Amino acid sequence: MSMDQIIKKKKWPARRIITYSLAGSFSVLVLYLLIFQTSRSTLNVESEKLTVSTVQRGPFQEFIPVMGEVLPMQTIFLDVEEGGLVEKVYIEAGTLVEKGDKILKLSNTSLLMDIMYREAELFQQINNLRNTRLLFEQTRLALERDLADLEFQVEKQQRKYESYKSLYEEKLISRHDFEDTGGEYELFKNKLRLALESKEKELSFRQQQIVQLDDAVKRMGENLKVAKGKLDNLTLRAPITGTLTSLQAEPGQSKSPGERLGQIDAPEGFKARAGIDEFYIGRIQKGKPGQFELSGSTYRMVVSRVYPEVRDGKFTVDLEFPGLPAPGIRRGQTLHIRLELSDVAEALLLPRGGFFQKTGGNWVFVLEPDGKTALKRDIRLGRQNPDVFEVLDGLRPGERVVTSSYDNFGDNERLVFK
Fold first, then answer.
1. Residue 118, phi then psi, degrees to nearest 5
2. Whether residue 177 is found in the same domain as residue 283
3. Distance between CA atoms of 123 and 82, rounded to whole angstroms?
4. Using one digit for the tens of pLDDT, what is the confidence trace for 30-40?
5. Contact 348, 395 (CB under 8 A)
6. Do the domain assignments include residue 305?
7. Strand, helix or coil at 325?
8. Residues 147, 284: one domain?
9. pTM above 0.70, yes or no
10. CB atoms near residue 409 (< 10 Å)
11. Residues of the chain under the 70 pLDDT cut
């Protein structure tokens, strides 16, 4: 009698063993990598040495701070027109002056000698003109006298010729005598014609001499007037009413032509002149607004002029008050002006900090909800002003970001606060 053999079922089939073995190995590998990666990219930091800022939504305006120097609306510079020695100073710097007031007087010996020489030359030319006119009259009278004599001779010869002609026709004189009389008559007529031509040319020449000398006298007189005007310029007078804010002149000093002696500020108002980084030259136009605080009050200004020349990486602008200037403002005062580049608009904002020098605004460390760790996260920033950055992507309102310097963080991607 045969009996079936009982086969015992194995508790751990080969397939199950392989499956569990692979799962266990994978778990160990993941755990190992996680522990290894965390330890490699984590840095322990002291929270007291960090600055943590909160991302918030609020009004944003792009602006740049500029330093403006207060200047008068109009400044007249006092330059030396004719050089010389400072002989006398009538008014000191800081004095209010009226238009036409004497400021200082220069002396110039060379200019005085030049004027004396010009005067002597002018008097000599006037004498030449007077003598030429006198000679012209004398020559005219002599020519008139000679012409009168010739005209008399011509008339006399004409009468003789007509008389001899009648006698010749009556055959009372010879042909030879008649022809001689006719020849003498023609001779005197030619002399009269030549004398008339000579008189016209001579008088015309003399007249041209007079005109030329007269023009020369007029030119020399005008030149002398200009030279005497230069002598008047040795006395420096105020061209406008205002304040003589500077004067560099002491008695006995030598001043060269074109040298600047000082300036007068007109009392009509003030403006501010500021240097701005050339990076903004394409964004600053006439009419751009700005504001500054003085004695607890805020005052507005607008760009009135942009100077396109760039020096040492900066260009210059003038700003004026749209109304009355701020009370108590003085020339040379420095104003901390907030120059606006855009209108106010709602935006997501991140306070500025030292992190930007390391990351360029491409990533930051964002705190986890528990506040004990911070993870590296890519972000995208837009416009900025001296206070905040405009956040375009990567952050949400209320999140907290480490905004202090990242120089000591190395390449770690996770911060743990102690």
1. -65, -40
2. no
3. 25
4. 554 455 444 45
5. yes
6. yes
7. coil
8. no
9. no
10. 18
11. 1-40
